[in-house]
Amino acid sequence: MRFGIGCNLCCCVHLPQSLAKSGKSEHSRKTQEHKRSSKVNKFDEFSSLLEGPRARGAFTLRGLLNAPWSLRIEAESPLTVIAMIRGEAHIRHDNGKSCSLAPGDVAITRAPGHYTVADHPDTAPTIFVNPGQDCRAPDGRSLFEEMMIGTRTWGHDSNASHLMLVASYESMSDVSDRLREALPPILWVKNEDWDSPLIPLLNAEIARDAPGQAAVLDRLLDMILIAIVRKWFDRQDSREMPWYEAKGDRLVGRVLKMIHQDPAQAWTLNSLATKVGVSRAALARRFQEVVGQSPMNFLTQWRLALAADLLSEPEQTLETIAERVGYSSAFSLSSAFKRVRGISPKEHRERSKA
Which residues have a Cβ under 8 Å from the Cβ of 66 and sit 6 or more positions away? Predict the structure, then answer.
């Protein structure tokens, strides 16, 4: 029998109802598996961002303040967690972003960037916090000892209207470049969205004076940071971040996965395009649309971010790092690092120790 062009053969063949349902079920099952697999891959890659945080001598403080109060923060800490226990606070970042925190709410800020935390958006700064957590009054006098009222407890008095917890990573080497660069300058999570027991625990532990307490607080900060970022990542607004959106793109997501999993591979635009089955022009165009830069520029940035993290490990030589991140020699890595980041690997290593 001869069928004309365009003849719909499936209309002429009637499958048994049970078989038709089975086919639909199989299709549905495969679709769900694909969605689950995509989600798992995204979170596996996200998990790699959270491998690095390890506080060492973190700054932790209970702040007890009576209104009106306003802290101008210019401390340059790599990452800072702010949690409200009592009263409300308003954070206004210099980039224009702002949020309000009620009891149980938490926020994370990252360097670089300055911001103000106050009891009310209109309250002018009454305390200035400079690098090294150096607290000053508007007239320049030191307030740290003057306002200390107990173990890691600072402010006006123990019955103040506002109680705020502050925990900061103080060294760039404590938090990976990749994690810092993946986060916005300020993010926040509401109490009803996560309801974690970690904040009450931190509140209790900060004021405790016991052997090994600094190590306890360091590990608590690591857990709290991971918990907050994970919850924020799962929220809808985090998906506006380009790095998250890119992973959801079928073409770009595959390229990112290859680069992330094997940065030492001698990738070229041609080899990446061949792997995903498109032309170089198609890949370059789509990658630029989704990520905002070319595949090769992204590859360079990723390799140098990995190198920056590895430079914080004293046992890693520059030659070993170069080999691990895809550079033919220590000289090639040094040249790229200085060109893109503005400082040499040696300077970066020295700064990460500070």
Answer: 155, 156, 157, 160, 161, 162
